[in-house]
Amino acid sequence: MDSDQVYPGWSQVKTVLILAGLAKENHRDKIDLLRAALQKEGKTVQVVFHLPVKKPKENPQPEVYYRNSVNIYGKPKSEVFKTLTIPTDVLIDWSTLEKSPNDFIALQYVAKMKIGINRNLPCFTFTVVEDGQPTQEIINEILKYLKLINK
């Protein structure tokens, strides 16, 4: 790993990408709480949701990519990758589907730190398990580890 891809420590982090799936109706609320906590820390946050339904012809949701934006192998098409801020300092994947198109993004995306919530991919620096904990406790745990790990 070259020096450009070393996690610089929380004080140097500027950008965070959150990947999420909308398999559960209340999942967007969790992501909004995480985004707010990161923004309160002074970070620029981009959120990308995957919704496994056909893209509506009118009023598609902002920050969402749909089943139409995924190829037959489940990989997001290049149009999705073009919407991502590259590179970013931290990637957080809080997808709720067992197999998510976000897995492809997490594996291919350039980030200095990658975190999986309830997900365990080889690219993740660490994984946080929800295990029924309240959302705020999960967010506090993520922030705790991001602040503990230094260059």
Structure, described:
This protein is globular. The protein has a 6-stranded parallel beta sheet, sandwiched between helices. It has helices at residues 27-40, 78-81, 102-108, 135-148; strands spanning 15-21, 44-51, 64-66, 88-94, 111-117, 126-128. The protein has 151 residues and is α/β, with parallel strands linked by helices.
Largest sheet: 6 strands, parallel
Strand order of the largest sheet: 3-2-1-4-5-6
Give me the count of strands: 6
User: Helical stretch count?
Assistant: 4
Structural class: alpha/beta
Q: How big a fraction of the residues is strand?
A: 15-25%
What is the 3D shape?
Answer: globular
Low-confidence parts? none
Write down the secondary-structure element order.
Answer: EHEEHEHEEH
Q: Termini separation (Å)?
A: 13 Å
Mean pLDDT: 89
**Percent of residues in helices:** 25-40%
Computed over alpha carbons, the radius of gyration is 15 Å
